[in-house]
Amino acid sequence: MEVSAMEEALPKARRKGGLRTIPFIISNEIFEKVATFGLTANMVLYLTERYLMSSAFAAVVIYNWHAVSNFLPIFGAVLADACIGRFRVIALGSFVSLSGMCLLWLTAILPVYQRTPECAARLADCVVVPWQVPLLFTSFALMSLGSGGIRPCALAFGADQLDKRDNSTRNVRTLQTFFNWYYTVLGLSIVFAATVVVYIQQARGWVVGFSVPMVLMVTALALFLLGSPFYLKAAADRSAIVGFVQVLVASYKNRHEPMPPEAADASSFYNKAGSKPRTPTDKLRYLNQACVLRNPGKELSADGAACDPWRLCTVQQVEDTKAVIRVLPIWSTGILPGLIVGQQMFPTLQAKTMQRKVGGLEIPAATFGVFSILTLTVWVAVYDRALVRPLSRLTGHARGLSLRQRMGAGLVLFAVAMAMAARTESVRRAAAITEGLRDSDPRTGPPMHMSAMRLVPQHCLTGLAEALNLIGQIEFYYSEFPKTMSSIGMSLLALGLGFGALLGSAVVAIIGAATRSGGHDGWLPSNLNRGRYDYYYLVLAVLGTANVVYFVVCAWAYGEESQNRVAAADAAAVEEDGKGGEEQHKAVII
């Protein structure tokens, strides 16, 4: 295996990083994801059955929990990139997340209802003890805080071990393979969580069911720390974050100053001493005011540094800032997928009302979400191993399809999946009413005769959409962001999912309030058979269609993807790389 440019430049780090670190990082992620997803998959049932929350209120709680979990990674990313480094943030986040899981386990052990005669006679008359809900929400908060450290850093930390920091075709392909197989392995771990862990929770109860993720999280933390001597640990760099702010301030301060003519050469702009002179690009030209060199004698010190970095910035700083700002419109198209991915608690409630026996085995309601993960995993494997090479020869992209093509296709599939979900729910509801189950309590009543396998196609479409759009977003942010801000780039996906969860919470609350007027049950009552959840899915399908149109506009306005486009001839040359390229792929997979 070739050593990276970073390793060549740093003799002491030659034994750091590389493929041998990947098992520790991947193992940590596997156990962490099994633990986390093993808790979230069944949470809607835990809230509705143990805490007696309504379906709509439980959905709002879970949406808000997901929102907080997805907002915090941006702070974890800043902490990692600018303060203490990715390794420390991942380790700290794992410990905090473990603390939250311990508290959640306690909520299952300690009594949840006040001991009253009414409660003994009828479950619906029970009152939750005052301290149980704060304890529950504290556990959610700690798990969110922990994931805020793990999620933005783990993938970037793994890529750091392999990235040669060049734009060669092999490096691009290696990173794509790592990204794809990273998600494949995590997908398999989520499948395990959605089947084995969820089954334990249903068969053995919440106490045993919540203890399993807790033990797995301890294992994840131990494995990650065990690999510490081998990791390549990039130092935190405050200058990347500060430089971003400096460019905004400097361009504002110089807003009234004249700009050089378009034909001006690199001498008209400030480049860091020792770097290759360059001129800024024309995109977001307003920001070029920050790097215009107007009076070198006054603006530069004897060693060539800017006397006032809040008025004069380097061309590199300006271009890095542009890279961050340019992705924001495309990033905003990832908010709606966050809503769709986050509303999977409703299919769980649907499955709860349906026939879930396959042969002699009854499948837990929360396990049906595994079909989306299986689809994601299969697609990633097929795309990476069978489709990338022929597509790269046709398109000239080392990744096969461009990142924006994959992201756009994913958005289309999200909209189609919601339309399919609306149709399935309409058929399910009609069948339940025909069977006389309109007023049956879905928590205690008998299931209908319709098989829950009817939910599988919508789950599969959602999984394929996630494989195309969400993984495409990750690669897009990693390739377009400055390397010193990789964790922040990775956190943008989580941030979009967070806004999507907030949007989902708002949509559920608005639809619930608007459709309950006049004493009606509304579209989203606790009894699904009395509601119109199919209309809710139709609303999401319409929003998804509008989002596709918005994405097309944003993708057109963005222009060329930056460094990672390769010529078709170059992509074909990769085919002739032969065994060396294949061995690199196998090494990353292992």
Number of helices: 22
Judged by helices, strands and strand pairing, the structural class is: mainly alpha
What sort of overall outline do the alpha carbons produce when their principal axes are compared? globular
Task: Give me the CATH architecture of the largest domain, please.
Answer: Up-down Bundle
The amount of helix comes to 55-70%
- Counted up, domains total 2
Identify low-pLDDT runs.
1-14, 563-590
**CA-based gyration radius:** 26 Å
InterPro entries: MFS_trans_sf, POT_fam
GO molecular function, one term: transmembrane transporter activity
Membrane topology: Multi-pass membrane protein
Subcellular location: Membrane
Task: Please describe what this structure looks like.
This protein has 590 residues and is mainly α. The chain has two domains: 5-235 and 327-488 and 496-589, MFS general substrate transporter like domains (Growth Hormone, Chain: A, Up-down Bundle); 238-323, no CATH class. The protein contains 22 helices and two strands. It has helices at 5-9, 22-40, 43-49, 55-84, 86-109, 117-121, 132-162, 169-204, 206-226, 238-253, 296-299, 315-326, 328-332, 335-342, 345-352, 370-395, 403-434, 456-480, 486-515, 533-558, 568-576, 579-589; strands at residues 357-358, 361-362. The chain has a two-stranded antiparallel sheet with strand order 1-2. A hairpin with a 2-residue loop joins β1 and β2 (361-362). α2 runs antiparallel to α9, α3 packs across α4 and α16 crosses α21. Mean pLDDT is 80; it is low at 1-14 and 563-590.
